[in-house]
Amino acid sequence: MIHCGKKQIGAFLACILIFSSIFFCYVKDVQLQNNTARKNSPQAATTTASPVIQPCRGKPAQNAITPLKGNRTFIISPYFDDRDRKLTRVIGIVHHKNVKELYCWFCCQPDGKISVSKANIDVHSDRFDFPYGATDIICLEPGSCDPTHVSIHQFPHGDIDQLPRFEIKNRKAEPSSVDFTLCISTMFGNYNNVLQFIQSMEMYRILGVQKVVIYKNNCSHLMEKVLKFYMEEGIVEVIPWPIDSHLKVSTNWRFMKDGTHIGYYGQITALNDCVYRNMQRSKFVILNDADEIILPLKHPDWKTMMHSLQQQHPGAAVFLFENHIFPKTVSTPMFNISSWNAVPGVNILQHVHREPDSKKIFNRRKMIVDPRKVIQTSVHSVLHAYGTTVYVPMNVALVYHCREPLQASLPRGALIRDTTLWKYNSSLIMNVNKVLHQIVL
């Protein structure tokens, strides 16, 4: 018989404890490795892992205007459009004579494969004889492809890695987040009509606008501060529009055979992009300039006006409003607010005399449209739409347009005094003063 002392028994028990701990850790490690192996097995992947989306190749487009090789085609942005057929509509600018063939290189998901199809090049009819015009590059999407990005190329073959890549917008249907979005195109010529711009912005807000999209070529330093203020307020979205870096632009809407490439800083292209950009996020899109305001005469704001017009014209897509000139050369001493005198620009409250209709001058129109029904738009009319067009009578609303006179020879007595704007004067003055107080001019 072996006799063990207390020290020997204690040492023996300690050895058993250490051995048990080592064995327990080993078992846990084996179980962990087995679990990991099960998770990574092909059978497990088919039931728990989501498919891996392959990245699209090509160079991501960084700017609002992207020239293709040769500088005869310029891409703005592609938009998904399934209203008639499943297609991608690329808003662009092309030379109507030199660009005859383009191809759409789709990046299909989830495998990232490239599908190439020939594009239909649809130059808008309102080109006004300029060599370059707003263009829809229409790409029919292949049935087996769910593209997220597209590249445009002159050929059906080449190196995709060298082509600019564009995300296809409007891919997912979304409910409208705002009632009214206003598109202003284009701001150029070192724009500095600060007071009238602020007044217009505040009138838009009073009437019901929630978003203003501005395609900005250039403006004054002071105007930059104003834009920054409204951007921080969340109401203004500025789209950089450096079109004169690519083309010789004209400030005229008609081609004057002066070597220019495109009219009025490419405003028709900008307007079409703005319609598609806001197609899903806005119930209505308003197309007018910064010196124009659609003034309701029968209703307090746009929402009640449009509700009434839609009830009367349920199938309408486009509502056209007559443009009337209120010459900034003819003023009234009313609302001469001293704190506004130091701000550059026109005080619209002092200009309430409009030119009468003339047989020699056509009253052009500006628009409120349902963007989901518009296919192509020009400046004063929609070229193609899925609905009807309504000419809104002048007793319902008119476009207040404060600018240089068209009938400059008319005496003051021949003008029509129209103080419709003044019914908003109290709210307008208060709002403009609030903005001027917040912007250090």
Explain this structure:
It is a single chain. The chain has 441 residues and is an alpha/beta fold. The protein has 2 domains: 59-167, Immunoglobulin-like (Sandwich), CATH 2.60.40; 178-438, Spore Coat Polysaccharide Biosynthesis Protein SpsA, Chain A. Helices cover 24% and strands 30% of the residues. The protein has 7 helices and 25 strands. Strands 11, 12, 13, 16, 17, 18, 20, 23 and 24 form a 9-stranded mixed β-sheet that branches. It has a 5-stranded mixed β-sheet with strand order 1-10-9-5-6, with no helix packed on it. A 5-stranded antiparallel β-sheet has the order 2-3-4-8-7, covered by helices on one side. A hairpin with a 5-residue loop joins β5 and β6 (114-118). The longest helix has 35 residues, at 6-40. It starts with 5 loop residues before the first helix and ends with a helix. Mean pLDDT is 90; it is low at 1-48.
Radius of gyration: 31 Å
> Mean pLDDT score, rounded?
90
Domain count? 2
- The strand count comes to 25
**CATH topology annotation of the largest domain:** Spore Coat Polysaccharide Biosynthesis Protein SpsA, Chain A
Task: Identify the overall geometry.
Answer: elongated
Strand percent estimate: 25-35%
Name of the CATH architecture of the largest domain: Alpha-Beta Complex
Largest sheet: number of strands, sense, barrel closure: 9 strands, mixed
Percentage of residues in helical conformation:
10-25%
Low-confidence stretches: 1-48
Cα distance spanning the termini: 106 Å
Level-1 CATH class name of the largest domain? Alpha Beta
Based on secondary structure, the structural category is alpha/beta
